[in-house]
Amino acid sequence: MDSRTTEWDIVIVGAGIIGCSIAWHLRKGPFRVLLVERSEPGGLATNAAAGILGPLNETSGPGPLLDLMQESLALYPSFVDDVQKASGLSADLVSSGILSVATSPEELKSLTARWQWQQSRGKGLSFLHSDEIRKEFPDLSPSVLGAIHYPHESHVFAPRLLKGLLGGLSRTSVSFRSGTSIRKIRPEGNGDLTAETSHGDRIRSRKIVLTPGAYLNEMEIPSPVPPVIPANGQILSVRIPDFPLRKVVFYPEKGYFVPKLDGTVVIGATEETVGFQTRVTPRGIMEFLAPLEHVCPRLLDAPLQLTWSGLRPKTPDGLPLLGPHPLHSNLIFATGHYRNGILLAPVTGQKIAALLQGKDLDDLRPFSPDRFV
Ligand SMILES: Cc1cc2nc3c(=O)[nH]c(=O)nc-3n(C[C@H](O)[C@H](O)[C@H](O)COP(=O)(O)OP(=O)(O)OC[C@H]3O[C@@H](n4cnc5c(N)ncnc54)[C@H](O)[C@@H]3O)c2cc1C
Q1: Residues enclosing ligand 1, CB less than 6 A?
Q2: I need a labelling partner for 11 at 20 to 30 A (CA). Which of 124, 125, 259, 275 fits?
């Protein structure tokens, strides 16, 4: 081995919430683990996220994705607690509950259809009619005709959780290398893998985990490579410290607002396929601001604080990619979390760490990268 090559047991490519959660679940050993980040950790998606943890609100039907999301939601309190103890940083996890509302007869019809399959899938769910909404949530517009209440769905401050993970990891044996992009990965004859970096050096490892979010297809890795595209999301925040409604509220098409503990309300989000552009446009934000007039008009008069956008990693079927490369079992994918990477971070970290420790996990089958071969 030459002096420009370092050796590891496990290398994780990309320090977003997914890469960091996997590193977190490996922090107690016994492996030599290196986490590599090209730029700002979580800079593509994690730092842009609203941090909603809403399995039922996010799925169109029962199945393995809903099961995985519900499993992850159940892991959240202890995950956040451990990170907070290790880092001293709070991730502002709030068990707020989510309201999914309808403001037209057509929307009410589809909400009612959703209620039919969802009512037995979670604890304490309820369907609220307009008179109940008026009484319980007077800050919502009289145009709200009905709502499903998911009392156990919640939200977290994603950039702060990521900061906590990185802070906690800095006190463990996991090594972190920033400002380094992995350009190319090639297999060696004995099953090891070698990664070439943007600095011209090489990193050799028994296993490599790919957690580069929407940038997966920008790297040169052995084929076949499953497709991941960036789904841009524009989003913003307003400042309204005395806002009394503490629920996350979803409204059609894909609008939502999230009252955060720090006195801001995050309002989002678009979903566009515009390549790797991260810009905010008046037309984009109008898409989710205009319907607010019929949901919670008060928010439209609050001082605008920030606008930003990020790139969700999206696969063609909307399911994450979790598991080994079809031909090189030491190369492992953990990306494609699309709209729910914050929610899915604890379960992904737990299961991919178990896979790296040699466990066979049947429940990851539906998310196997093999499905695109
Ligand atoms: C507007 C918006 C709102 C969202 N809201 C929510 C929400 O409410 N709830 C929810 O659960 N999810 C939400 N999401 C989705 C969530 O943010 C993502 O699914 C999640 O952050 C993906 O995490 P990741 O670690 O895979 O990717 P990222 O956060 O994109 O991290 C990938 C990291 O890899 C690095 N990287 C890439 N290529 C390389 C390379 N070659 N070498 C080294 N490093 C590399 C990048 O710089 C980056 O830091 C939202 C996303 C957006 C855009």
Answers
A1: 13-19, 36-39, 41-46, 48-52, 181-182, 211-215, 219, 233, 235, 268-269, 310, 312-313, 335, 337-343
A2: 275
